[in-house]
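A student in our group prepared the protein record below, which I am reviewing. Thanks in advance; the entry in question is below.
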Amino acid sequence: QVQLVESGGGFVRPGGSLRLSCVASGFHIDRHHIGWFRQPPGKEREGVACASISGDSTHYPDSVKNRFIVSRDNAKNMMYLQMNSLESEDTGVYYCATFRQCAGPPSNNDMEYWGKGATVIVSS
């Protein structure tokens, strides 16, 4: 059974950092592009990071570029999202996912598998 489970969400002040983790089971992530998307309250889903199968290529939308870092550990079948300099606009539910491609900022249309999400709240 394919499963992705996120952890590490929580409450943080503006300017703070959080690291999300995601463990995959039922398949091996080393054959997939991986990444994260989020859904802010009342807004559309937005892809925020992807990493290619090799891990050599990563892509982010301008909204999080230079603040978020996606990484993968194929041996542990895990992926991570390091989020720095968090802003209130980063509040939302964050989902780890696999993608059909990672040639630019991830698109919702390219999602294959995804988890149930982890809530991140950035507020003073």
In short: The chain has no helices and eleven strands. The CA atoms of residues 26 and 79 lie 15 Å apart. The mean pLDDT is 96. The first strand starts at residue 3 and ends at 7.
